[in-house]
Amino acid sequence: MYKKIVLANIDKIHTTKMRIDRIKRNLDINNIDVVEFCKNKLLDKDCNIYKKGKNFYCQIHNIVITINSFSYTIFNNNSSSNFGILSMAQLYFLTGNKMEI
After folding, report:
1. Does residue 75 lie in a domain region?
2. How many structural domains is the chain composed of?
3. Residue 91 lies in a domain
């Protein structure tokens, strides 16, 4: 259901200049159009899209793409090696496992 919503609005997906650098750093990618990279991941048949609160979480392989569901702004991308910077609530939502600190 959420995948259809995101794909129907794929042309609205964008990010800010400041976030581009963060996304590149988090995903360890260079010389790539970040928005096109994310759109291609969203279009992949293996991409699972969930909604929690105001955000869509798009998980594919070892990447999580977070998109605001109102503005379609990409504001956080993480590879599995960067899960430490996700909140415990995000980890619980994405994995279904309660995390103890």
Report:
1. yes
2. 1
3. yes
Write down the pTM of the prediction: 0.74
Gap between the Cα atoms of 10 and 44, Å rounded: 13
Q: Which two tokens stand for residue 20?
A: 């581009």
CA distance 14 to 6: 12
Strand partners, 57: 50, 66
Which tens digits make up the pLDDT trace of 54-89?
999 999 888 889 999 999 999 876 765 444 434 444
Q: Which residues contact 66 (CB under 8 A, 6 or more apart)?
A: 55, 56, 57, 58, 74, 75, 76, 77, 90
> Which domain does 13 fall in, by range?
2-95
What CATH code is carried by the domain that includes residue 84? 3.30.2310
Instruction: Give strand ranges (E) for 1-101.
Output: 48-52, 55-60, 63-68, 74-79
Q: Tokens for 27, please give them.
A: 């995903």
- For 19-47, the pLDDT digits (tens) are 998 888 888 888 889 999 999 999 999 99
